[in-house]
Amino acid sequence: MSCDTGNTYNQTTTAANNSTSFTFAPEPEALRIVRTVLFSLIAVLSLVGNYVVCRAVWRQPGAKPFAHYLVSNLAFAEILSMVCLVFTIHAYEPPWSWKLGNVMCKILDPLQIASVLVITTTLAFLAFYRCLLLVKPLVAKPTRRQMHCVILVTWVGSVGLSVPASVFRVVKSYPYGENCETHVCEEVFPEGSVHYQDVYSVVLFVINFAVPLAIIAISYTLVSKKIREHIFVIARLRDAQSKALSVVHSSTTVEEMPGLSVAVNQICDENQEKLELVNIAIDSKTGMAERNQPKRKTPSVEIWKRITTENPATIYHITKTNPQETTK
């Protein structure tokens, strides 16, 4: 039986049933409105953003990389988790009592546990896959069947781990105040097996938090180490390239340096003009000296004149034997 709890959040009320007690702290109306608006904004942005991611991946034609399947799986799990969280928040609004019944109590919280397990497991797979691609880029990529198997195993394992939370979750009523009671959806293990509840909580903590966190930390540590090695190699290559370029620049010819080439060409042009002036002066002097010197007869002409003057008979003999030489 429930009662009017219009002043529930304006006063502190304690209800006791055996060893269980509840304390309802007062919440100002303005704070409740701000909380509701902020949660609604976060929920809308989460649903719309993750839907856009899923739609972009699913509408992509052709074969998709494994990372795209993991990202779409992550987005779908976040959509499911947000939907469950919306119903859960609504169920615990004032008067701070579960309003959705026993069936929804067995569905909502276990489904939210499963979706959170899928989110953390997918993040771990994504970090490991990125590390594998960077550390060993030549490794064989998973086939489409292997991708589907990984995603299926993720969901089946998560749902399987959330089954105990669904089996042992019930709605319990606790009285408080005068003729009032509150309903709480909680996980209640049978008497004598409370230690199993502790073991189950530890298993969920290890699988949902510790193991994915360790995988993500190790993977991104290896990724950062590999990136630092690549940066070091690139820095060494740049140093070697700069040294090679400095050697090449120091050994370049004058034609490859425009400023210096212009200056050298001007100097060469001036020197060429000076050399031409000197050559003209030398040529003029040599020409004047040749004109001033008397002409000398060649030895062949002098010998021919001497022969002809001393022995005219030889002219007849030479012209008769070789008439072409006389014509010359």
UniProtKB/TrEMBL annotation:
Keyword Transmembrane helix assigned: yes
Membrane topology recorded in Swiss-Prot or TrEMBL: Multi-pass membrane protein
Keywords (A to Z) from UniProt: G-protein coupled receptor, Membrane, Receptor, Transducer, Transmembrane, Transmembrane helix
GO terms under cellular component: membrane
Cell compartment(s), UniProt: Membrane
Domain G-protein coupled receptors family 1 profile: 49-229
Transmembrane segments: 37-58, 70-92, 112-135, 147-168, 199-223
One of the Pfam families matching this protein, by short name: 7tm_1
Domain of life: Eukaryota
GO molecular function: G protein-coupled receptor activity
PROSITE patterns, sorted: G_PROTEIN_RECEP_F1_2
PANTHER family per record: GH23382P, NEUROPEPTIDE Y RECEPTOR
Name of the molecule in the record: G-protein coupled receptors family 1 profile domain-containing protein
Organism annotation: Desmophyllum pertusum
Organism classification: Eukaryota, Metazoa, Cnidaria, Anthozoa, Hexacorallia
